[in-house]
Write a structure and sequence with these properties.
Blueprint lengths: L1 H11 L9 H13 L7 H13 L3 H18 L1 H8 L9 H12 L5
Length: 110
């Protein structure tokens, strides 16, 4: 059920399954939701694990997420700003993009 929500948000941000970075974005969000503590160690832990799961290097993961963030900014800057819960004037970094998606899609705390 959660994946449908992830897919919906990615779609609204202009990130489609036909794009090369889609599986990386999807995997990154799933990992962030499953293990949010990894977000504190993006380059040492998070990007390498996403790369391992997607069969690519950590540098490829970071680049792909950066491209996805730029694509989202071009496609729907209003949604990206709403997800950030603050005014943003440029595309977020790869790490900020993942953190924003995590914050928007994480399970609500009861």
């Amino acid at each position: 059920m959660r994946m449908n929500k992830v897919e919906n948000v990615l779609y609204q941000l202009g990130i489609y399954p036909s794009q090369a970075g889609y599986p990386i974005a999807q995997t990154a969000i799933a990992l962030a939701i499953k293990e949010p503590s990894r977000l504190q160690r993006l380059t040492l832990d998070f990007y390498p694990e996403v790369g391992k799961q997607c069969g690519c290097t950590p540098a490829c993961v970071e680049r792909s997420l950066r491209i996805s963030a730029a694509r989202a900014w071009d496609a729907n800057p209003k949604l990206l700003t709403a997800m950030a819960q603050r005014e943003i004037a440029q595309p977020p970094t790869a790490g900020d993009f993942v953190c924003m998606l995590y914050h928007c899609l994480r399970p609500s705390e009861s």
